[in-house]
Predict the structure.
Amino acid sequence: MEPANKSEISPNSFLLMGIPGLEHLHVWIGIPFCSMYVVAVVGNVTILAVVRAERSLHEPMFLFLCMLSVTDLVLSTSTLPRMLCLFWLGAHHIAFDACLAQMFFIHSFTAMESGFFLAMAIDRYVAICEPLRHAMVLTHSRIAQMGAAVLVRGVAFFSPHPILLKQLPYCRTRIIAHTYCEFMAVVKLACVDTGATKRYSLSVASVIGSCDGFFIVFSYVLILRAVFRLPSREARLKALGTCGSHVCVILVFYSTAVFTFLTHRFGHNVPPQIHIFIANMYLLVPPFLNPIVYGVRTKKIRERVLSSLRAKVV
């Protein structure tokens, strides 16, 4: 694993280090990571299959949930299998183009995940605050337009990342001190001033995250105001229960995202093990939690899955 010291515009490969200082625990760390990946894949595929098979679930909430499930599958599959090869097989080498592709999928689909959380918050707002207009406002064509807008935004804002990194010369080392090809970890290897590139990445991430976060919070403030005006206590509890699961997943996603962003911006004294571990949680936990929270706590999906299992047993 000799570092390459000569200047190269496009090196053949990089070396992923994993979690610095915890290399002796990589095999054990891979076990819970693999378990979370299996749950994420099985859970999200189950949601997609159930919604596709059950026409009564072709409603805005479940259609947005399907978009979120596809995003989770791409996000987790673009990182976990490669990470497990690193932990269990010692496969440190990753081709330069594969590294750039992984980086694009991670950042663009993370932005899409944030966008779909916002779309789901809008759906909850319309369903609770404007229930009589829900079907008229969120038609299938409008849902498709919202999904396309989230997709285009993620691709448009993060396509420059691999293009910019492709143009940089790399002369310091080929070793990436991370478990996957994270943008900031790769850009540090360049032997030219990358201040503008770093600022672009941080600016895009902060604008997308802060805008989505603001409108999500605003939506839920309006939802809570409408919920507490409901005359029935049972209706209030039902509405709060529906929104509570959404809020828990959103909090996990944004808390880890904010920690990662602040670490890049200000946390120069944060131990690399903590930073990398939180960055992994940022990618692993939402795909793992989403099918559990939305699948188990959503009565229609839960009943459909249970009825299918009973039919197979019989």
Remarks:
- The radius of gyration is 21 Å.
